[in-house]
Design a protein that fits this description.
11% strand; 5-stranded parallel sheet; two-stranded antiparallel sheet; single chain; Rossmann fold; 14 helices; 319 residues; 7 strands; alpha/beta
């Protein structure tokens, strides 16, 4: 069936358990059910949950936060739903802007169709979808967005810690950001091939940083920023601030339970025990093993940022 959404049967507990809402993590992915887009829109039109977004530039605890706020009765979180990845892919293939905006609006309607009455909907898109982030906020006038990022040295160290996989991933991300028109940082065509993997990682971080700063300016009062170091330094403060920002109405006992829950003590991807100390040790090891390159890349990125008028500290901090 053309012009249809393909639905996968996945109970809420299964969706919450899945790392991301993509085929790899959903047992029912092999048996999708196509439903015509107009049928989906008609059925979803009566459902209008309060929407919030967790946009991120990768490796900054966004999945941790999404897991923490999957709260039946209060909020439903959707982690990197593949339909949004499909739409950004269509955009890169030349989708007409008006048609893309319509489909994006309809995709957001579909994502909110099964949210129980009274619950907020928090969507954490993949960061490869970030070029559509301003459009999502524009389409949902009452929504708010938290923009998550890691401090630059931490982000570069995270990529270094992931070995070849991480280095390949940042080059793939850069190609996608470039296709989205986000990579105009004063370089000549072909310069990316002359840069190291960690330079490419830092440039991808910087391109997303510029986008986030633009969103803060475009949507005053609706956007807040939060870096992973601040997020992890004080979980109770983080949880309280995020809940207040999205107006979730949680009491002190509920906030304490979230801050002391497994989201902050487990690896968001593997589920293994993994707290602040383990994260710090991982980053410290990566920095020690790659110190010279990381320091040079960070200094170089600061110079590129200065030449492009990009502040490394984002405005509108959550706290």
């Amino acid at each position: 069936m053309s012009d249809a959404f393909h639905f996968i049967r996945a109970p809420r507990t299964e969706r919450a358990r899945a790392v991301f809402l993509i085929d790899e993590y959903l047992p029912g992915a092999g048996q999708p059910k196509p439903v015509g887009r107009t049928t989906v829109v008609a059925a979803a039109a009566s459902s209008s949950p309060r929407a919030g977004f967790l946009f991120h530039s990768a490796f900054c605890c966004s999945t941790l936060l999404a897991n923490a706020f999957e709260l039946p009765g209060t909020a439903m979180t959707l982690k990197e739903p593949v339909v949004l990845n499909d739409l950004i892919g269509w955009r890169r293939r030349g989708a007409p802007p008006r048609d893309l905006a319509e489909r994006l609006d309809h995709a957001l309607l579909a994502l909110g169709a099964n949210v129980p009455a009274g619950e907020a909907l928090l969507i954490k898109p993949s960061n490869v979808v970030n070029a559509l982030a301003p459009a999502m906020l524009a389409l949902r006038a009452g929504s708010r967005a938290l923009l998550l990022h890691a401090p630059l040295p931490t982000f570069v160290a995270s990529i270094a810690s992931k070995g070849m996989w991480g280095r390949l991933w940042v080059r793939d991300l850069w190609a996608k950001l470039d296709a989205d028109g986000m990579c105009a940082l004063g370089f000549e065509p072909g310069d990316a091939m002359k840069q190291t993997d960690l330079q490419i990682a830092a440039m991808g971080w910087l391109a997303q940083h510029r986008l986030f700063a633009g969103m803060v300016a475009r949507f005053p009062g609706r956007v807040a920023t939060l870096d992973s170091a601040a997020l992890l330094a004080d979980p109770p403060r983080t949880v309280t601030a995020v809940a207040d920002f999205f107006a979730l109405g949680l009491d002190d006992a509920a906030l304490a339970a979230i801050a002391g829950g497994k989201a902050f003590s487990r690896n968001a991807k593997s589920g293994e025990a993994f707290g602040v100390r383990e994260r710090e040790a991982l980053h410290a090891g990566a920095i020690d093993a790659n110190r010279d390159e990381i320091e040079k890349v960070v200094a170089w990125t600061r110079a590129v940022a200065d030449s492009n008028g990009i502040a490394l500290e984002l405005p509108a901090a959550l706290f």
